[in-house]
């Protein structure tokens, strides 16, 4: 098996984030479930945009944020995702490439616009997302570059991809190519409502070993196993999955394997400004650690360090070099 | 004279900011004068965008930032500026209206795109701007809404407007309408290179009393009077202008009138993240104070409070309610 050219390939929805501060009352008035992601159509997107406050725009998307984090840690990263041939698509491609991420998926022409997610950030730093998928719905198996998947140590897939039907096919094709090349496949469950829509299929992906490494937060994991008990959910996960990382907010994360569970505390932060990207950047640190052969505990700690950086400022991607931050914390990157 | 409907009307270039961190070496390599604004064409804009790092986008423009600040202070604000009928234009209009600013200038159709400024933020917090004016070049006298100008206590104009020839006409027309309605006209000199291009015309605007209230920073003022001495420049200004506010960076600001000069210290900040918008927000506080009949010293202090908020985070507009910030500092707003 040749040495991989990439530490991590991310495949996900290519989304521009439109971020605004909002009061909790606004979420109630708009009927939104706090801290989750809502899929919306173009009409609802226009209406919500009109109602929300002044915003700041930045490239986002869960797997996109993760690979930007891998690059910021000094890793070699690639991304597959569908933008349109429009201003937001240009912006997304620029940010990906300027971050040092290989990104060559051809843009959609003459179709839906580039996806956008209206992210409402409440005073407690929680984010509530409203995503119009646009061009992302047209990511298909033909967009999966076999050479890139085969050259990535780990292919990382978003649970969010399970919504657009074409993307589901792309997801399966990528997993097949990766395994045929002797590489690893990783999945994040993404969102509790996403899990609720596709519980059976996600369990099947995990139990069939289509997924080697699972990411979930506490809420998503409990949704997966339909239990209010974290302990019960983790116990079920140990039966189903060879390696998982479960984030539990301010408590940090758990590394879960059939033979045990290892907790890692969160890296302290002065103040939580915006939780957008916290899970994505935890995944970046953990995956980078795995790709570089770190011990699981070190990989998890690198995850919490990357997450701590991104929640200290507005925006879903690192604002400073994560490699520098990690080096200051004693990592030899 | 009827009571004004607006405290401040801003007329300026409607620009979307594309902000990225950059090292000083990058500025040198690209031949950029630090802390100033460069006008660039579409080709140079593309080249610089390709070369710069991952960015965050936000509505900007000097007078646009100022009126967003007025609204954040609880004032009644309006804006006149030219966007195109495109994604960045929609974004700009949204942000203006969502900030509570009246903005009804019709967008340009089938012409140049909405203006963008690539803003490079160096580790010291200084910003170096590279502006492609696009649709802004088409702001003309026909865009000056007579009713809005006549209903604004103060009409505030950017020196930057003196670059596009049509905008210059718009500027003169606005000043004429404002004075005919018994209102005040204010100008910011905007940038030392801008002053260098139009020194004679700016002096004429001031000396002819086309401008009642002048804003400048130390560098711009010294460029205006072609002197290395701040004292000499301020002395010359006292001869030419009935009321001016001169910002001097970390030292704060000077209120300058023929009968005297009053210094106001800067409001301390924990750390300077991004100086973008500092002058614009100082102007917001000072103008809001004037429009509400505050003493000059209080208006200047309100300016330093608004400036301190905006330099504490990335982005050219307030991230929190300036009214709340000012109330905490003892202002009855």
Question: SSE layout and pairings?
Answer:
The structure is a homodimer of 333-residue chains.
Chain A: E1 6-11, E2 15-21, H1 24-29, E3 37-39, H2 42-51, E4 56-59, H3 62-72, E5 77-80, H4 87-98, E6 101-103, E7 115-121, E8 127-132, H5 146-150, E9 152-158, H6 165-180, E10 184-188, H7 192-207, E11 213-217, H8 218-224, H9 230-240, E12 243-247, E13 253-257, E14 260-264, H10 278-291, H11 296-310, H12 322-328
Parallel strand pairs in A: 1-5, 1-9, 2-7, 3-8, 5-6, 9-10, 10-11, 11-12
Antiparallel strand pairs in A: 2-4, 7-8, 12-13, 13-14
Strand content of chain A: 15-25%
Provide the residue-averaged pLDDT of chain A. Answer: 96
Quaternary organization: homodimer
CATH homology superfamily name of chain A = Ribokinase
Could you give a short account of the major beta sheet of chain A?
Answer: 9 strands, mixed
CATH topology of chain A: UDP-N-acetylmuramoyl-L-alanine:D-glutamate ligase
Q: How many helices of chain A does DSSP assign? A: 12
Q: Mind telling me the C-alpha Rg of chain A?
A: 18 Å
User: Which of globular, elongated, flat, extended, rod-shaped describes the shape of chain A?
Assistant: globular
How many discrete structural domains of chain A? 1
Low-confidence stretches of chain A: none
Helix content of chain A: 25-40%
Question: Termini separation of chain A (Å)?
Answer: 24 Å
Helix and strand pattern of chain A: EEHEHEHEHEEEHEHEHEHHEEEHHH
Count the E strands of chain A: 14
Question: Main interface pair?
Answer: A-B, 27 and 27 residues
Secondary-structure content class of chain A: alpha/beta
CATH architecture descriptor text of chain A: 3-Layer(aba) Sandwich
CATH class term of chain A? Alpha Beta
Strand order of the largest sheet of chain A: 6-5-1-9-10-11-12-13-14
């Amino acid at each position: 098996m040749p040495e991989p050219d990439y530490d991590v390939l991310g495949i996900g929805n290519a989304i521009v984030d439109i971020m605004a501060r909002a009061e909790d009352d606004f979420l109630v008035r708009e009927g939104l479930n706090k801290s989750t992601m809502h899929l919306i159509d173009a009409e609802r997107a226009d209406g919500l945009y009109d109602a929300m406050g002044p915003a700041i725009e930045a490239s986002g998307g869960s797997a996109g944020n993760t690979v930007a984090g891998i690059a910021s840690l000094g890793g070699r990263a690639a991304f597959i995702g569908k933008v349109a041939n429009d201003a937001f698509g240009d912006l997304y491609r620029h940010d990906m490439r300027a971050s040092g991420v290989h990104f060559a998926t051809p843009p959609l022409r003459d179709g839906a616009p580039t996806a956008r997610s209206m992210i409402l950030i409440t005073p407690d730093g929680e984010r509530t997302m409203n995503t119009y998928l646009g061009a992302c719905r047209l990511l298909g198996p033909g967009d999966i570059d076999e050479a890139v998947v085969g050259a990535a140590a780990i292919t990382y897939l978003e649970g969010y991809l399970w919504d657009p039907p074409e993307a589901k096919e792309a997801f399966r094709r990528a997993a097949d190519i990766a395994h045929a090349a002797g590489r690893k496949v990783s999945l994040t469950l993404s969102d509790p409502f996403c899990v609720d829509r596709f519980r059976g299929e996600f369990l099947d992906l995990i139990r069939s070993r289509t997924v080697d490494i699972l990411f979930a937060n506490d809420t998503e994991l409990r949704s997966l196993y339909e239990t209010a008990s974290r302990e019960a959910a983790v116990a079920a996960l140990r039966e189903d999955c060879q390696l998982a990382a479960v984030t539990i907010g301010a408590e940090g994360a758990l590394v879960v394997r059939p033979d045990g569970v290892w907790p890692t505390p969160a890296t302290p932060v002065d103040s939580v400004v915006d939780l957008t990207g916290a899970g994505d950047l935890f995944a970046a640190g953990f995956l980078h650690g795995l790709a570089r052969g770190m011990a699981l505990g070190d990989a998890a700690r690198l995850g919490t360090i990357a997450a701590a950086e991104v929640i200290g400022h507005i925006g879903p991607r690192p604002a400073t070099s994560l490699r520098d931050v990690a080096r200051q914390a004693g990592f030899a990157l």
